[in-house]
Amino acid sequence: MAHLIFEHVSIRYPIYNARAQSLRHQFMRIATGGKIAAEAGQTVAVTALDDVSFELKSGDSIGLIGHNGAGKSTLLRTMAGIYTPDSGRVIREGRTATVLEIGSGMDPELSGYENILRMGMLMGIPLKEMRTKIPDIEEFTELGDFLSLPVRTYSSGMTMRLMFAVATSGQPEILLVDEMFGTGDAGFQEKAKARMRDLIANAEIFVFASHDHKLLGELCDRVFELSHGKVIVATDFNKKEN
């Protein structure tokens, strides 16, 4: 059974720069999700996640909302184990798949087919098992002969198709997605939504960060609203919308 627990998790990014004070003022003039604080000497630290606690289990589908820089992407990467907390702890049980950043986990010099196997390896899927998933990925992506070409020749939409198809080719127990539906044509977006609904129906954990509240309402049951690294709302999505 999938399980994801955050216990008082904080992540801070120290910025080491002799011009830290001027850098601090520069950050203050732009939208940023973290809290900026001066430390000893000339170090500036951005708190990207601030004492975040929650528990997710099988059947949970969570939408993440908040302005740019609010901490959504950092939260997803911490859920995935890409980032390690500076304090607190993360307990994650279940095979995890991610669609976080276009091209993430891919080698642009390798072909689409080679990257399918590469991403499968990064997900912990045995090579033999991953090879059996290739026909499904071919059909879903509709990339045809492009799968034999280096990924660097792909458009961003084609790259996202391949990433999404690989991430959802099996039955991940935890699926983490960051703003993927803004990329690609309308037909692919509908295919991706249908595939996502199939995954969610199988009672796995799904976390999706997006600015599209309508889409979040279609795919998610609950919403976490982030502001300056804190989860300030954790409630039923319909209640949030009402």
Automatic annotation (TrEMBL):
InterPro entries on file: AAA+_ATPase, ABC_transporter-like_ATP-bd, ABC_transpr_TagH-like, Bact_Polysacc_Export_ATP-bd, P-loop_NTPase
GO molecular function, one term: ATP binding
Xref: Pfam families: ABC_tran
GO CC, any one term: membrane
Transmembrane segments: none
Keyword Iron: no
PROSITE patterns: ABC_TRANSPORTER_2
Keywords for this protein: ATP-binding, Nucleotide-binding, Transport
Gene3D superfamilies: P-loop containing nucleotide triphosphate hydrolases
Domain of life: Bacteria
Domain ABC transporter per the UniProt entry, residue ranges: 28-242
The family this protein is said to belong to: Belongs to the ABC transporter superfamily.
Name of the protein: ABC transporter related protein
Originating organism: Halothiobacillus neapolitanus (strain ATCC 23641 / DSM 15147 / CIP 104769 / NCIMB 8539 / c2)
